[in-house]
């Protein structure tokens, strides 16, 4: 049984063991994710996982850029209307 963070970790070596355990857990999870992605890519070669990530990121950036452009355009239009007096 591994104690929770802070519980029973008063000694430096206990903290080092806990850090080592956390690092190995993260590495194990990463290997599981990589294995699952490799299986996905083999099962669906036409929809590679990296393409999905790129499409989603591209769509998100497009929405943000469009909103930013529209806010600048509206701000410029308001300032030019104030100067028309």
Walk me through what this model shows.
The structure is a single chain. With 85 residues, this protein is an all-alpha fold. Helices cover 78% and strands 0% of the residues. The protein is built from 2 helices and no strands.
Features:
85 residues, mainly alpha, 2 helices, 78% helix, flat
Topology:
Blueprint: H1 12-43, H2 49-82
What is the share of helical residues?
over 70%
Number of H/I helices:
2
Mean pLDDT: 85
- The chain-level structural class is mainly alpha
Q: What is the H/E string?
A: HH
Q: Which band does the percent of strand residues land in?
A: under 5%
Provide the low-confidence segments as ranges: none
Query: What is the global morphology?
Result: flat
Largest sheet: none
Q: Give a count of the beta strands, DSSP E runs of length 2 or more.
A: 0
Q: What distance separates the N and C termini?
A: 76 Å
Which value, in Å, is the CA radius of gyration?
25 Å
Short description:
By secondary structure, the chain is an all-alpha fold. It is 78% helix and 0% strand.
């Amino acid at each position: 049984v591994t104690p929770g963070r802070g519980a029973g970790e008063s000694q430096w070596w206990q903290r080092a063991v806990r850090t080592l355990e956390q690092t190995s857990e993260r590495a194990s999870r990463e290997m599981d994710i990589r294995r699952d992605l490799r299986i996905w890519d083999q099962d669906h070669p036409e929809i590679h996982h990296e393409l999905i990530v790129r499409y989603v990121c591209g769509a998100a950036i497009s929405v943000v850029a469009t909103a930013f452009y529209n806010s600048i355009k509206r701000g410029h239009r308001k300032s030019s209307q104030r100067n028309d007096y």
